[in-house]
Amino acid sequence: MTHSNKPTIYLASASPRRGQLLTQVGIPFERLACDIDETPHEGEAPAHYVVRLAREKAAAALARLAQSGAETRLVLAADTTVTLDGEILGKPADAAEARAMLSRLSGKRHQAMTGVAVAGQGRIETALSISDVTFRPLEPAEIDAYVASGEPMDKAGAYGLQGLGSVLVAEMRGSFSGVIGLPLSETVELLRRMGYPFWG
Ligand SMILES: Cc1cn([C@H]2C[C@H](O)[C@@H](COP(=O)(O)OP(=O)(O)OP(=O)(O)O)O2)c(=O)[nH]c1=O
């Protein structure tokens, strides 16, 4: 697929995965860093949380673009979290927290959720992807070894389904791209709704 006839979108994300996924389906993008407060609201449901954060990231990026006078096209943002029994497991703060998260996920099914937002032309549209992921029972020594690999540290729930973390997962039902940070079919659908010429 060539990039030549497609407009560049702004990706309001520092996540390397989100960029790789867009490249995988031939969507050219420019990155735009945006820092927002990612603290969940008191009692906020995980599905609400990821969509709210995606919306806030996109809105913050759009506001920055407007300030810089840049021509605004479409801004894309997303947020991924892992939830176990209704509780939000974000990115671990340190190795001890990564070990604790992986011990909780061991032998159980959890949900991986990604909220996506596309903003531009005075509108903002959102989507939500929810997948079920089941971990096989993990031995303490393999949790230690996995944490020592460093892979868990920048990932929600302390694992990467796309990497070494794949050996911990017995089953996944849902969207692979959604679990790892950007559900591609929902994202392309949102972009097309905003007038993006995905198929040319
Ligand atoms: C569950 C899971 C998460 N992840 C990653 C995707 C996200 O990058 C990260 C969750 O953190 P997010 O806060 O969604 O994203 P981010 O901080 O990496 O980037 P930004 O806010 O700038 O867009 O976890 C994987 O890479 N693989 C997985 O299997």
UniProtKB/TrEMBL annotation:
Cofactor(s), by name: a divalent metal cation
Pfam families assigned: Maf
Root EC class: hydrolase
Main location: cytoplasm
Subcellular location: Cytoplasm
Protein keywords: Cytoplasm, Hydrolase, Nucleotide metabolism
Site (Important for substrate specificity): 17, 80, 162
Catalytic residue list: 79
The keyword Transport belongs to this UniProt entry's keyword annotation: no
Molecular function per GO: hydrolase activity
InterPro entries according to UniProt: ITPase-like_fam, Maf-like
Catalysed reaction, written as an equation: UTP + H2O = UMP + diphosphate + H(+); dTTP + H2O = dTMP + diphosphate + H(+)
E.C. numbers: 3.6.1.9
Function of the molecule: Nucleoside triphosphate pyrophosphatase that hydrolyzes dTTP and UTP. May have a dual role in cell division arrest and in preventing the incorporation of modified nucleotides into cellular nucleic acids.
Family that this chain belongs to: Belongs to the Maf family. YhdE subfamily.
Name by which UniProt lists this protein: dTTP/UTP pyrophosphatase
